[in-house]
Amino acid sequence: MSEGKRLAALILLAAAAWSQAFAAPAPASGEAGEKILETVEFKGLDGAVHRLAEWKGKVIVLNFWASWCAPCQAEIRDFVQLQDAYGTKGLQIVGVGLDEEPKLKNVERTLGMNYPVLMVPQVSNRRLLAAWGNENGLVPYTVVIDRTGKPTYIHRGPMDEEVFRDQVFPLLGEEGAGT
Fold this sequence. Notes:
The protein is an alpha/beta fold. Helices cover 41% and strands 20% of the residues. The protein has a 7-stranded mixed β-sheet with strand order 2-1-5-4-3-6-7, with helices on both faces.
């Protein structure tokens, strides 16, 4: 099985696990990317429930992080700049905070996060991360999802400029951007 197919299968399992964990209905039919976009939902720091489908048609950089994680905070600073620079070209960074709401809000405010920050109940962190292919539960952890909703790349640890250049910019039609 190719890496892309294995990754898509892992993400579908994550969507199913997420749905079951929070009693959301599992998708009945449709393309794998559509299932992921429609099924996966999180509560945002803004108080609303968000589905990844809100950003359909954009390249989604789904970043799992925690307030106590120094590499996460360093990466967030870069993500803020990238969202500013490439948001109009279809980039949508979405943070998924794995911590208590007040701590997440403090980081959001302190770092001037200019992209949505969603939350996961702490009791679900390990199970959710494992379902998304992160069995060790380490953060930061990032999943890149193309404009059709298909996961194309997973990254353990902070993403650097080279990873963005190789994995994200081509999806935006920005070959060699940032170099």
